[in-house]
C-alpha cells in the first residue's frame, strides 16, 4: 500500500496559557489523497482550525507544544525547521481563511499580495509576478483583472475578496489547499459561486483540499470524505454519504438534528444537543461528548465518563463511541427514518 | 388578516441614509437607499420572516419598526396608531410592547451588570412593578428561557454564547411584549446551540402568543420559524408569501436562485437544480433602474430596466402570495415540499 | 489629495478667524482700558494718546477687529511708529516693533526645539518599541518596558536642571543650551540644542516605546499577518512589510497631538534652559501686559498646530490606503 499524500498521525496541539494547558487537539489521525476533498466539521473550539494551522506550522512555538506526525508527500512537518516550512507554505501547501477582508493586508494592493507569494517561491521579476497575478485573478473570475490588480482589498466586494484570496493561495499551484471556513462570511449566492470555483480549480489542478466548516450543508456540497471533530478529537470519519446518511456517533446525529432543512417538517421542535461545547482547559473525562450525549446512560459501567473511546473501525466506518453497533442501529433508527423521509 | 386590523401595518416604508460629500463645502450628494417602499403586515401572534443577503435592508427594516431609526417616508402603524414619526413621549408606551433581540449575544449585554439587573432593566426604565416584585419576575423569566433562576446575580461573561442569547430573550420578554423583532438572533451561535435558541423562540411565540419579525439570512431556519416569509433584495420586497407557497412555489427568479443556492446536508442521488447567480449585489447608492434584480437576472429584458414591477398576486399565486416580477417563474415547477406537522408522517 | 488640502486650509482659515475673534474680544472687551494695557507699564500720557489713536480705541469693537484683520492682508500704518507691512499681526507699543517681527525672531528657536526633539523621540521611541515587540517577553522587552514607565513619569524642569548640572557643568560632555540660527552655524545650532532635545525626548520616548510595543504586538495578531506567514514569508519580512504599518496609524495620531503639547509646553522647556523662544516671549508679554504680542503668539501657535495636524492626516492617508481624505 502506497503512502497517502497527506498523512496525519496522532497529532496533538497543546497551548500553554495562564490558566493551564489547553489541549486543543488531542490525538488526531487522518489521510488525504491528491484531488480529494476532506471536510472537517466541528463547532467553535473543536480544534478544526488549530489542526490545520498546525499542519502549516503556524502556531507560535513559544506557547505551543506539537506532537505526533504530519507527512506531506513523505516529508515530515512537525519536526521541520522554520526555513523548511517557509519553503512549503504558499508553495506546496497553502491556506485560505474565513474573513478575507481581515486576512488580506489593507496596506498593499491585491496584485502586490498575490505577486509577493509568487516571487518568494519562484524568484521571478516583479513584472512576471504582476503578469502572473493578473492571470490568477482572471482564472478566479475577477472581471477586468488587469485593472483590478492594482486595487486594495477594501475596494473589492466580499465575494471578490475571497476570490482574490483563492488566487493568492493557488498562485504557486499548491498540492494541498486548506480552506478554513472560506464561505462562512459570505451570502448564500456568493457562497455557491465560491464553492463552484473551488471545485473547478480542484478538477483542473488535482489539488488536495481540506475544507473546514461548521456547516454540514457545505460539506454535503463539496467534500468526498468527512471528519467530525468534537473537543479536539475525531469522533467520526467516513465518506460523505456514510456520515450524512447513517451517522455512527451521537454528536454527528445531534448536529444533523439541529439543522432545519428546506423540506423537513415544520412546527415540530428541532432536536438540539443540550448544553454547551466543553472547555478544553478542563475537558470532561472519558468521552468528551458524554455530558451532552443522550445515549451515555445506555453504556454499561459508566464507561462513557471513565474511558476514552477509541476510534474503531466497524464495517469500514470509524467512530469513537462506546455504543455497540447493535445499540446504534436501534437507537439511531428513528432518526435515520426521519432523514430519508 | 382581512377584517381585523393587523398588529403591525407597514406601507411604503422608506429609509434613505444621506451621503455627505462635495467640494469645497460638504453637502448631501446622494443617499444609500437602504429600504425603499416596503409594504407588509404582521398579524397578532404571527411570525414574519425577513430574508435576504447582506445589504438588502432587512436589518434597517427591523430598526425602523422598533423606531430605533426614523423612516424617511412611508407609514408604520402599530395597533392602529401611527408611529412613523412618533416622538419619545408617544413611543414610550409602545416601546414596551415592541422588543428587540440582537445578533451578538456578547455585545448586546452590559458586562458590568448582573443578569438580574439586565433583565429587570426594561421594567425599571418603564417604571413597572410586577406582582411579587421585579426579582420574582426575573426569576420567572430565567425559568422560561431555560436558565437557572439561581443565576440571578451572575455576570454575562459567566455564561456561554447560547446562554447569553437566552438572557437577551428574557430581557425582551420582561415587559410582556406583543411583538419581538429578532435580528439574526442565532447566526452568531454554534449549530447545536442555534437549535436550542430556535426552539426557545418557537416556544415563546406559541405559548405567549407573541408576534415576531424574524430577520435572518438562513433560509432553512426562517422556514422553520416563520409562518410567512418576505424575501428582500436591495431595499425592496421581491416576494412575500406563506412559507408553503414561498418555499414550494417560488415565483420570483431571485427567490428561486436563493433557494437553489442553499447547501443542504443531504446526499442526493440526482443533483438538485442549481441556479448560479453571477456577480455581486449592486450598490444601494445607485440601484439599477426598474427591477433592481435585473442586473443579475437571466430573464431580464428592456421592460425590466424601464419599469419597476409591482408587488402583486401574479397569475398562479394563491391569495396572499405576492411577487414583484414581470416574468414570474412558472407556477409549481419546484416539487411541493413535504410539509408535515408530524415527523412520523414525514418518514 | 488636492481637494483634501484645499478643504483643510479653508477650514484652518475659519478656525483661525474664530480664535482671533475670541481672543480679540477677550482682550479688548475687558473692563480695563486696553490702550493703557497695550501702552505698557512705563507709559507717558503722550504715548497713551498715540496708542489710543493707533488702536482706534474710540471705534466700536467690531471696527477694531476689522482693522486688525485688514492689517493681516494689506498692512497697517501706525502714524508716528511707522508702517507695519502685510501680513501685519499688530504692533507692540512696548518694544516699538511690529508683532510679527518679534515673533519671527523667536519662532525658529521654538520650532527647532520642538521638531528636533520630536525627531529624536520618534526615532528612539519607535525603534525601541519595535525591538521590544520582536523580543516579546525576553529580558530586553522587560527592561525597555519598565525603563519607559519610569522615564515617562519624569518632569522637564527636574530632568532638565539635573541633566544640565551633570552633563554640562560636571562632566563637560555637552554644551550648555543655547540657540544659534541654523543658517549661521549648523554645528552650533545642533550642539546648543542637544541637551534640551535629549531631555525632552527622554520623557516622550518612553510613551512612544510603550505605544509602539503594544501596537506592534496587537498588529502581529492580525489576520493578515497570519496570512502573510501562511504564504511562506519569514517572520522578519512579515514584521517589516506588514505589521509596522498597522502599528503606525495610532502612533501618528498621537504624534500630531504631542506636537501641540510640545508647543504648549515650550514655556516650561524654554524657561528651564533659558532659551528665548515663543514660550519665553509669551511669559514676558503676560508680565508686561503686552496684548498685541500675546494675540500674535496665540495666532502663530494655533496656525502651527493646525498645519501639523494637516500634515499628520496626510501622512496617515499615505500609510493607510483605506483612509480617504475628504
Automatic annotation (TrEMBL), chain A:
Membrane protein topology class: Peripheral membrane protein
MF term (GO), any: ATP binding
- What's the chief localization of this chain? membrane
Q: SUPFAM superfamilies, per this entry? A: P-loop containing nucleoside triphosphate hydrolases
> Which InterPro entries does UniProt cross-reference here?
AAA+_ATPase, ABC_Ni/Peptide_Import, ABC_transporter-like_ATP-bd, ABC_transporter-like_CS, Oligopep_ABC_C, P-loop_NTPase
Question: Which keywords accompany this UniProt record?
Answer: ATP-binding, Cell membrane, Membrane, Nucleotide-binding, Transport
Q: Which cellular compartments is it found in?
A: Cell membrane
Signal peptide segment: none
PROSITE patterns found in the cross-reference section:
ABC_TRANSPORTER_1, ABC_TRANSPORTER_2
User: Ranges for the ABC transporter domain?
Assistant: 8-256
Gene3D superfamilies the UniProt entry points to: P-loop containing nucleotide triphosphate hydrolases
- What family does the Swiss-Prot or TrEMBL record give for this protein? Belongs to the ABC transporter superfamily.
What protein am I looking at?
Answer: ABC transporter ATP-binding protein
TrEMBL record, chain C:
Identify the residues that the record assigns to the ABC transmembrane type-1 domain, covering every copy: 107-316
Show the Gene3D superfamilies listed in the entry.
MetI-like
What UniProt keywords apply to this chain's record, in alphabetical order? Cell membrane, Membrane, Transmembrane, Transmembrane helix, Transport
The membrane topology noted for this protein in its Swiss-Prot or TrEMBL record is: Multi-pass membrane protein
SUPFAM superfamilies according to UniProt: MetI-like
Membership in a protein family: Belongs to the binding-protein-dependent transport system permease family.
Know the name of this protein? Answer: ABC transporter permease
Q: Which organism is it from?
A: Streptomyces achromogenes
Amino acid at each position: 500500500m502506497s503512502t497517502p499524500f497527506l498523512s496525519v498521525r496522532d497529532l496533538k496541539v497543546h497551548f500553554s496559557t495562564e490558566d493551564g494547558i489547553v489541549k486543543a487537539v488531542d490525538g488526531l489521525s487522518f489521510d488525504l489523497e491528491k484531488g480529494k476533498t476532506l471536510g472537517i466539521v466541528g463547532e467553535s473550539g473543536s480544534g478544526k482550525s488549530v489542526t490545520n494551522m498546525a499542519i502549516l506550522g503556524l502556531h507560535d512555538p513559544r506557547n505551543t507544544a506539537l506532537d505526533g506526525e504530519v507527512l506531506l508527500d513523505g516529508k515530515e512537518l512537525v519536526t521541520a525547521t522554520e526555513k523548511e516550512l517557509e519553503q512549503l507554505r504558499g508553495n506546496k501547501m497553502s491556506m485560505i481563511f474565513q474573513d478575507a477582508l481581515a486576512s488580506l493586508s489593507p496596506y498593499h494592493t491585491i496584485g502586490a499580495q498575490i505577486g509577493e507569494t509568487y516571487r518568494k517561491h519562484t524568484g521571478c521579476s516583479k513584472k512576471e509576478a504582476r503578469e502572473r497575478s493578473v492571470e490568477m485573478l482572471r482564472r478566479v473570475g475577477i472581471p477586468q483583472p488587469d485593472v483590478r490588480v492594482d486595487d486594495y482589498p477594501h475596494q473589492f466586494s466580499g465575494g471578490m475578496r475571497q476570490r482574490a484570496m483563492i488566487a493568492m493561495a493557488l498562485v504557486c499551484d499548491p498540492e494541498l489547499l486548506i480552506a478554513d471556513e472560506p464561505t462562512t462570511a459570505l451570502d448564500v449566492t456568493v457562497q455557491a459561486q465560491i464553492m463552484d470555483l473551488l471545485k473547478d480549480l480542484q478538477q483542473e489542478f488535482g489539488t488536495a483540499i481540506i475544507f473546514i466548516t461548521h456547516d454540514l450543508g457545505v460539506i454535503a456540497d463539496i467534500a468526498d470524505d468527512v471528519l467530525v471533530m468534537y473537543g479536539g478529537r475525531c469522533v467520526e470519519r467516513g465518506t460523505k454519504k456514510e456520515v450524512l446518511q447513517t451517522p455512527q456517533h451521537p454528536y454527528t446525529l445531534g448536529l444533523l438534528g439541529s439543522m432545519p432543512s428546506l423540506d423537513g417538517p415544520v412546527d415540530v421542535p428541532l432536536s438540539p444537543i443540550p448544553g454547551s461545547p466543553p472547555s478544553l482547559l478542563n475537558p470532561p473525562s472519558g468521552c468528551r461528548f458524554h455530558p451532552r450525549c443522550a445515549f451515555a446512560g445506555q453504556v454499561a459501567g459508566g464507561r462513557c465518563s471513565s474511558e476514552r473511546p477509541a476510534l474503531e473501525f466497524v464495517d469500514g466506518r470509524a467512530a469513537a463511541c462506546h455504543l455497540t453497533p447493535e445499540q446504534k442501529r436501534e437507537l439511531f433508527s428513528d432518526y435515520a427514518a426521519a432523514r430519508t423521509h | 388578516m382581512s377584517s381585523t386590523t393587523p398588529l403591525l401595518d407597514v406601507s411604503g416604508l422608506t429609509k434613505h441614509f444621506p451621503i455627505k460629500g462635495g467640494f469645497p463645502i460638504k453637502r448631501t450628494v446622494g443617499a444609500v437607499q437602504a429600504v425603499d417602499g416596503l409594504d407588509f403586515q404582521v398579524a397578532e401572534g404571527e411570525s414574519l420572516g425577513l430574508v435576504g443577503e447582506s445589504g438588502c435592508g432587512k436589518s434597517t427594516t427591523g430598526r425602523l419598526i422598533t423606531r430605533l431609526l426614523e423612516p424617511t417616508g412611508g407609514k408604520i402603524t402599530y395597533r392602529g396608531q401611527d408611529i412613523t414619526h412618533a416622538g419619545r413621549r408617544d413611543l414610550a408606551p409602545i416601546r414596551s410592547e415592541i422588543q428587540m433581540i440582537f445578533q451578538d449575544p456578547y455585545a448586546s449585554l452590559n458586562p458590568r451588570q448582573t443578569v438580574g439587573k439586565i433583565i429587570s432593566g426594561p421594567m425599571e426604565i418603564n417604571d413597572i412593578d410586577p406582582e411579587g416584585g421585579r426579582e420574582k419576575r426575573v426569576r420567572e423569566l430565567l425559568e422560561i428561557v431555560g436558565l437557572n433562576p439561581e443565576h440571578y446575580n451572575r455576570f454575562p461573561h459567566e455564561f456561554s454564547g447560547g446562554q447569553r442569547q437566552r438572557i437577551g430573550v428574557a430581557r425582551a420578554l420582561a415587559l410582556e411584549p406583543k411583538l419581538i423583532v429578532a435580528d439574526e438572533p442565532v447566526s452568531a451561535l454554534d449549530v447545536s446551540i442555534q437549535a436550542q435558541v430556535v426552539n426557545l423562540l418557537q416556544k415563546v411565540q406559541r405559548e405567549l402568543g407573541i408576534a415576531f419579525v424574524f430577520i435572518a439570512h438562513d433560509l432553512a431556519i426562517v422556514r422553520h420559524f416563520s409562518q410567512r416569509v418576505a424575501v428582500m433584495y436591495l431595499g425592496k420586497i421581491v416576494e412575500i408569501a406563506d412559507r408553503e407557497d414561498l418555499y414550494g412555489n417560488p415565483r420570483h427568479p431571485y427567490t428561486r436562485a436563493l433557494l437553489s443556492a442553499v447547501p443542504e446536508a443531504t446526499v442526493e442521488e440526482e443533483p438538485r437544480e442549481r441556479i448560479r447567480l453571477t456577480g455581486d449585489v449592486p450598490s444601494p447608492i445607485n440601484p439599477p433602474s426598474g427591477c433592481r434584480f435585473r442586473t443579475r437576472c437571466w430573464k431580464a429584458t428592456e421592460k425590466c430596466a424601464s419599469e419597476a414591477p409591482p408587488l402583486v398576486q401574479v397569475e398562479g399565486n394563491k391569495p396572499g402570495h405576492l411577487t414583484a416580477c414581470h416574468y414570474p417563474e412558472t407556477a409549481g415547477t419546484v416539487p411541493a415540499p413535504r410539509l408535515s406537522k408530524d415527523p412520523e408522517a414525514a418518514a | 489629495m488636492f481637494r483634501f488640502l484645499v478643504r483643510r486650509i479653508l477650514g484652518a482659515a475659519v478656525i483661525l478667524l474664530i480664535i482671533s475673534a475670541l481672543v480679540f474680544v477677550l482682550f479688548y472687551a475687558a473692563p480695563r482700558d486696553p490702550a493703557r494695557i497695550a501702552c505698557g507699564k512705563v507709559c507717558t500720557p503722550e504715548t497713551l494718546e498715540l496708542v489710543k489713536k493707533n488702536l482706534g480705541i474710540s471705534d466700536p469693537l467690531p471696527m477694531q477687529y476689522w482693522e486688525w484683520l485688514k492689517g493681516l492682508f494689506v498692512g497697517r500704518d501706525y502714524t508716528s511708529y511707522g508702517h507695519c507691512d502685510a501680513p501685519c499681526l499688530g504692533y507692540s507699543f512696548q518694544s516699538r516693533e511690529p508683532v510679527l517681527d518679534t515673533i519671527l525672531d523667536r519662532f525658529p528657536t521654538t520650532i527647532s526645539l520642538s521638531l528636533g526633539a520630536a525627531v529624536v523621540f520618534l526615532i528612539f521611541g519607535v525603534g525601541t518599541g519595535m525591538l521590544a515587540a520582536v523580543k516579546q517577553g525576553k529580558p530586553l522587552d522587560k527592561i525597555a518596558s519598565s525603563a519607559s514607565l519610569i522615564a515617562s513619569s519624569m518632569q522637564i524642569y527636574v530632568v532638565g536642571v539635573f541633566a544640565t548640572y551633570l552633563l554640562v557643568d560636571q562632566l563637560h560632555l555637552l554644551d550648555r543650551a543655547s540657540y544659534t540660527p541654523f543658517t549661521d552655524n549648523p554645528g552650533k545650532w545642533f550642539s546648543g540644542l542637544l541637551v534640551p532635545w535629549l531631555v525632552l525626548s527622554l520623557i516622550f520616548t518612553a510613551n512612544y516605546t510603550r505605544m509602539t510595543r503594544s501596537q506592534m504586538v496587537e498588529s502581529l495578531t492580525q489576520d493578515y499577518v497570519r496570512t502573510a506567514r501562511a504564504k511562506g514569508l519569514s517572520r522578519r519580512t512579515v514584521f517589516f512589510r506588514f505589521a509596522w504599518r498597522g502599528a503606525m496609524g495610532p502612533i501618528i495620531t498621537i504624534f500630531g497631538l504631542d506636537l501641540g503639547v510640545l508647543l504648549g509646553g515650550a514655556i516650561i522647556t524654554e524657561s528651564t534652559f533659558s532659551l528665548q523662544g515663543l514660550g519665553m516671549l509669551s511669559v514676558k508679554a503676560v508680565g508686561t501686559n503686552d496684548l498685541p504680542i500675546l494675540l500674535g503668539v496665540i495666532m502663530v501657535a494655533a496656525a502651527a498646530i493646525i498645519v501639523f495636524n494637516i500634515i499628520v492626516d496626510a501622512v496617515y492617508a499615505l500609510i493607510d490606503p483605506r483612509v480617504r481624505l475628504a
